[in-house]
Amino acid sequence: MPQISSGQSVCFDDITIAGLVACVPPRVVENSEFEAQFGSGVADVTKMTGVQTRRWADDDVTASDLCLAAAHKLIDQLGWEADTIDALIFISQTPDYRLPATACVMQAKLGLRKGIIAFDVNLGCSAYPYGLWLASMLLSSGSAERVLLAVGDTSSRVVDSQDRATAMLFGDAGAVTALEKLPGAGRSHFILGSDGGGFQNLIIREGAFRTGEGEGQPTPSKLFMDGGEIFNFTLKAVPTLVKDLFEVSGFGSDHHDAFLFHQANTFMINHLAKKAKLPQEKVPINIGRYGNTSSATIPLLMADDLGQTLVDQETRLAMFGFGVGYSWAAASMPTQKLGCAEVICL
Amino acid sequence: MSEFYEGLAEIMEVDVSELSTDYEFGEAWDSLAVVSTIALIDEVYDKAVDIQLLQDCKTVGDIENLISKTDG
Questions:
Q1: CB of A297 within 8 A of CB of A129?
Q2: Is the N or the C terminus of chain B less surrounded, counting Cβ atoms within 10 Å?
Q3: Under an 8 A CB cutoff, do B55 and A228 touch?
Q4: What is B3-69's CATH number?
């Protein structure tokens, strides 16, 4: 795996996305619902984040529930027999349990074959391109012929309702992507990287096994975000990541049909796109409707804003996930006409 | 007036003529203003300033000093 300045770089041949389905909960939360609490702060924050509405799951709904609904729909639409699926990856920071892995629980609930590969990965903002890389590895190594990649989070359950920086930013969503081998599908390129030096800037301190660190924080069991530090990290990391992806793939700005940025906040995406000199019409933004859905932002963007295009046409997509960890990943991936690309409501 | 002053005036929601090196931000220098200013400095000067040092700035002059001390 060659090392470049923004991370590890690798490519795969003949891997394709067969289809994807994203699932959001039915409850729409409007900005007006926060006005009693934050007053004029709502308008200030909205100016930066761009979030007008978000979907929040009920208390008894988890990220895996959203992914299960998406997976059922996807398998049905693609006409895949359940026993032809060899692996299930679930990437989330809001799993069902501390143990077992949610992917194992999902294997049974989906009626997939016993004996498939199933495991969880703990990543957030970088989840989707990381997951596509993992799925591509399983396929290209011969470990699996067909893979389901599930990503999703119910961040609404972990935000601090008193903190205006996070309370209004996040939404809930899950998405499942079906991948398989397809001779002639073309070459995908990935770059993956990490910098744990910034781990404390986006964190939930309590709830796992390192105890006693949350003293002095107002709510250590809830999500803490240092927005300024995260923004600064993004400004340093992402422009280089974009440049490096163009370089390693040999596909520049003109050769990609869309640039899909993790929907962190509108101001940040616009700034990154401008800095990388990307044409605005190729940088879709849907955080206004869904909020920052963490691991699910990129597939939600694909299913929602690009759904029809991905079904009708072949494309090459550039994807950039970056944030919590810090962790980042980029992908330049060709797509054939997808069997299915849509958003459903739970 | 420079691109930086114009951008800063927009962030602070004041007329650009009000800004000078001695202009004090006061209470309006909140986290959103700081983040917006990081982006502005990146755009105008292609520099990523230290956020803690930027937060500590009290005047326009303080920011200008920070920018000149920061490597591009």
A1: no
A2: C
A3: yes
A4: 1.10.1200.10
